[in-house]
Amino acid sequence: MSLIPSTNPFNVPKPWITIPTELIGSLPRTTALLEGQLAYKAGHISLTQLDRLQDKAVRQTLLELEKTGPGQITDGEQAKPNFLAYPIAPLYSSSYSFDDIIDCFTITFSDRHQRSLPRLTQAPFRYGKYAVDYLCRAQQYTRRQIKQAVISPSALSNVYPRATISGYSRDQFLDDLVNETEKDIRLCLELGADIVQMDFTEARLSLKMDPSGQILKQFIQLNNRVLDRFLDNAAYQYKIGVHVCPGGDRDSHHSLDVDYSTVLPSIFDLHVSTFYLSLASERDRKKCLTIIRTFMKPYHRIFLGVIDPNDARVETAEQVCDRVLEAARFIPIEQLGTTDDCGFSPFSDDESTTRSKAYDKIRARVDGTRMAERILNSRK
Where is each Cobalamin-independent methionine synthase MetE C-terminal/archaeal domain found (predicted)? Predict the structure, then answer.
């Protein structure tokens, strides 16, 4: 008979640890909405008619997402023109210009297609649309917790022209930008968003712009100016996360060729407790996980990408489970979450992935996460 006392003499069940799983944001637009967008651009339908189509697409998307399993959901960004420029798109005609395309901030993807931001021509900088409007619409059609994505100030900082605007310095612009981004986040939290995710896809891209890392450092400092405004509210701070990825659009990336290990350490300088980090598309996941383990703090929640939206193949639940179990060797289960590497359709005209395939991938993420959760809890 053993004289060693049992560490659990009364066989009290250990608490079950849930691994949360979340959608990043966007889904391919419905067929009716895609057709409506083209009709609106051609002048065949009114803005009111387009708005009705967007409303119907949001409602349909929420109903479909509810069927994929538990967890937070988004509106699929059905009504957003894109994840990047939604705050300024309504002001294009009055305050922005694409005329000097050479001076515009342009992102080139691996298949050579490009996306550009216009240049600000009219001061002061302001938002023409806040993310809370999308949240408000979605809340009408679901009782589930909703996650709302917002764009980072570092991304929108690229609309300021190389030549300064007369009477409106870059410092003045950045002050206005920080104020507007804070408002974008705060309004969502006040309306009841369960999570507000700041999209920081330009983090990795910045090392293409400047391999020295100075632009990345400036981007992080700018984003922290916004994040620091929520430090006095623990509840709000807990609900803010930052998403980092190599950019995904039309099944291609803009910065997957940038060594992730040169970016990840700096990401943890952000004053935030939740991170959404792409991982499924990486060739050396263990190297990335080792870096994450080194730089993460005990209060961080790390959502790791276990689905690659740009991969035409649909992952199986078993593949997702294996990726979660791999990650759990580096990250405590209490701090682990799963997500997709990126949105499935960050720009509204992206039809590279079908909605049905996106849902198949989401179900694989949810089922695979639950599978890994059962295995890890049984090992405790």
Answer: 20-351
Written in H, E and C, the secondary structure of the chain is CCCCCCCCCCCCCCCCCCCCECCCCCCCCCHHHHHHHHHHHCCCCCHHHHHHHHHHHHHHHHHHHHCCCCCCECCCCCCCCECCCCCCHHHHHHHEECCCHHHCCEEECCCCCEEECCEECCCCCCCCCCCHHHHHHHHCCCCCCEEEEEECHHHHHHHCCCCCECCECHHHHHHHHHHHHHHHHHHHHHCCCCEEEEECCHHHHHHHHCCCCHHHHHHHHHHHHHHHHHCCCHHHHHCEEEEECCCCECCECCCCCCCHHHCHHHHCCCCCCEEEECCCCCCCHHHHHHHHHHHCCCCCEEEEEEECCCCCCCCCHHHHHHHHHHHHCCCCHHHEEEEECCCCCCECCCCCCCHHHHHHHHHHHHHHHHHHHHHHHHCC
By the 10 Å C-beta count (0-12 exposed, 13-18 middle, 19+ buried), 353 is classed as buried
Instruction: Report pLDDT for 104.
Output: 85
Angle between helices 202-209 and 214-227 (to 10 degrees): 150
Q: What is the per-residue pLDDT for 164? A: 83
Q: Nearest 5°: CA angle at 172, between 170 and 174?
A: 70
For residues 262 and 278, give the distance between their C-alpha atoms in angstroms, rounded to a whole number: 14
Name all domains of the chain by residue range, CATH numbers in brackets: 71-378 (3.20.20.210)
For the cut 70, the answer to whether the pLDDT of residue 46 exceeds it is: yes
